[in-house]
Amino acid sequence: MHDLKAVSSLFDLRGDFVQGYSYGSGHINDTYCVWVDQAGLRIRYILQRVNHNVFRQPIPLMENVKRVTDHALKRLKEENCPEAYRRTLTLVPAVDGKPYALDADGNCWRVYPFIERARTYDQIETTKQCVEAARAFGDFQKLTADLPGEPLFETIPNFHNTTSRLAALKDAIQADPLGRVKEVQKEIDWYLSREADCHLVVDYLKSGELPLRCTHNDTKLNNVMLDDVTGEGICVIDLDTTMPGSAIYDFGDMIRTATSPAAEDEKDISKVTMRMFMFEALVQGYVSSAKSFLTPLEKSLLPFSGKLLTMECGIRFLTDYLSGDVYFKIHRPEHNLDRCRTQMALVESIEAQMDEMKAVVDRY
Ligand code: ADP
Ligand code: GN1
Ligand code: MG
Q: Where is the Aminoglycoside phosphotransferase domain (predicted)?
């Protein structure tokens, strides 16, 4: 456990540390809620340690986050948004003025004001939440499309390169450090039999048929905050992977995380299914925002994007299981394997409904 009081003192929190505790259910960073007493008023912040095993270069990453959040805030202020500071993450500076602080062990930390009266959902509950989340991610793509200056730093090279993800799975099968391959041959065969699908978007990006955009790249449902009262998607969070990417990646991960009633790590895979009405709500929300920039090819690939991103995530969970659970946080021994199996079930459900999904997209 880190000394949260000491870490908090590295930031300009304008008050006295009261308490801090682990927060949220992200798989990558260490996230804490920290309460501060500011002249008798208790205020909370989000304090995060950037996972530098995953993000090898935290400082350029933080420069990305700073650029994106400054740009968002500027836009909101230009629009006279009355609650600009709830509509975007903003970085609380360190005492030395930097947007991050390094501790004595070389960990990179950052602080965001806590977005109050809103929350994230690990499990979607209503179609309205789908519409709102998808619209918010679409709006975020529009915002980052106008980001001035150089393209953002690529925080994880080849993050959604499904061809490389498959190659990494093959390497893990070859290395088999824990002798787990024999237990999961069925799952391995299942993923390898879908190899052709892994290359499609990578090839379109290479040929220029699909445009490279500035995308979020981790549009899982719990990376958008929905207002407690209005249900509106008010703030896109978890900006570590915001970098060059494809709209297909962003929409695909929404399908992966928003259409099934089952959790990502559900053990009873009979509960996993792609619900068409949730898919339609995502299309409605996303297209309402993205119609101004989506190309016909991007639009036609929206149904397939769900299959691709679900498959890719399953490949990553299986690779991590074979490698000894070194990437995603796990809370039980076969956690990554359970996650890998839910992704398979979801892909099969998407495959079975692909024609209907295409018909839905055609209506928008
Ligand atoms: P990870 O990269 O590990 O997924 P996130 O940045 O998504 O980390 O944060 C984990 C969780 O913490 C989020 O799902 C959300 O519930 C909560 N969270 C993050 N930032 C804020 C914020 N500024 N205000 C309120 N809650 C937040
Ligand atoms: C991770 O950080 P978090 O929990 O929002 C992962 C995503 C995966 C997701 C699977 C940087 O997202 O790519 O899709 O887990 N983020 C990174 O739940 O690898
Ligand atoms: Mg997250």
A: 24-261
